[in-house]
Amino acid sequence: MRNIAIILAGGTGQRLGDAVPKQFLKVAGKKVIEHTLDVFQNHPQIDEIAVVSNPNFVNEIENIAIKNNYTKLKKILQGGKERYHSSLSAINAYDGDKEINLIFHDAVRPLVNDRIISDCIAALDKYKAVDVAIKTTDTIIKVNEDEYITGIPARDYLRNGQTPQAFKLSTIKQAYKLALCDPGFKTTDDCGVVYKYMPNELVYVVKGEQFNMKLTYKEDLFLLDKLFQLKSIAQQNETITPKAQQKLPVSVIVVFGGSYGIGLDVVNICNGYGAHVYSFSRSENGVDVSNNLLVAKALKEVFEKEGRIDAVINTAGVLDKEPLVNMSYNEIYKSINVNYIGAVIVAKESYSYLKESKGVLLLFTSSSYTRGRSLYSLYSSSKAAIVNLVQALSEEWYDYGIRINCINPERTKTPMRTKNFGMEPEESLLKSSVVAAVSINSLFSSMTGEVIDVKIKR
């Protein structure tokens, strides 16, 4: 039985209050619909994908398909004014096929996972209609037109519906055939059509996930971004992944700040797996990241020797734990130059090489970026600037195939930290080798524009 994913992308963005439909807004470095398509493209049980688009944005979908090389995306269909018009467009596109499974999913639910999709497909072996839902946690009240409570249903049997919704083609086709004969037909989802017009057909419910949320309002963009960060934590490996092991021997990697701490661990791990890794730092070979000429020279030397650069990692940084008013201007300039201007210089000088190789830039922030802390004013503000730099550049350079992320480690045992805080309990600190491993694995992921949190696994 062929499994066809139908991605419903006909929204106009009215509820979001934006001129751009919400499926084309960016979060975690990509358009929302790209995240969604990635999941179905990479799912081994999905045989084909069709996107039902707002007619005004078909060209946008075509460009996305070409740019991302979505090999499973075979049809780009036009939707209509109502949501059910999009479903009908897909049903009609596959009418005449042998029995197939249609898996309808909202383009604006980019965090759907493989488990949900697999469970829907498995359920279609027994049932002809499948929904996805999670338990309702809030108390639901029923009111009348005067806003008085008229009922409080028991939560035990209430669920919040999600997508995908999956069907045998013959079943959803027959349900809509009956529905369209009803002059009063109204619906907001496809399972509701089967439930109402084919009452003898059981609609099975697969367990969803809280994070499989739908982008509806502007506030949801912030939540989605944070959920992508949590997803990156859940997927982290503290050891080098098989994919990274395979790619490292044929990769050319430049590390700035590679003489100590996390940078040194990155260099040692890369060397251990046979990567062509080059380390530059002030103490090792006199390369100061705040000097654009030295950074440019270092990158040029590597390129002339190797013929390409696949990844550039900047771990260089300084931490001055001191009140701002006690710092000299030389100390202030040094802190800003190394912690922020250095990252800007590394990014700018790496651009042409990474554009040619469609490579990766990896920068580092700190957990202090979310809130300025006493005695860390320059360090915290510089690290906050790094996050904004990464998010902005990931969009500026996305069309050139350059991926850009930043690592945000919890408190990590490094020489820089020991110098400022002395000896601390071992169990309270991340090992720098763990941060290095997550950093290396991120080079060979599909992530871009993300703040990759690294935390102690408790």
3D architecture notes:
The protein has 15 helices and 19 strands. It has helices at 32-42, 58-68, 83-93, 114-123, 169-179, 190-197, 218-234, 242-247, 261-272, 282-285, 292-306, 329-357, 377-396, 415-421, 432-443; strands at residues 3-9, 26-27, 30-31, 48-53, 73-78, 101-106, 129-135, 142-143, 149-151, 159-168, 203-207, 252-256, 276-280, 311-314, 360-364, 403-409, 412-413, 430-431, 451-454. The strands form five sheets. A seven-stranded mixed β-sheet has the order 5-4-1-6-10-7-11, with helices on both faces. Helix 12 links the parallel strand 14 and strand 15. Helix 12 packs parallel to helix 13.
As a percent range, the share of helical residues equals 40-55%
Mean pLDDT equals: 91
How many β-strand stretches? 19
Output the structural class.
Answer: alpha/beta
Taken from the alpha-carbon principal axes, the silhouette is elongated
Task: From the alpha carbons, calculate the radius of gyration and give it in angstroms.
Answer: 26 Å
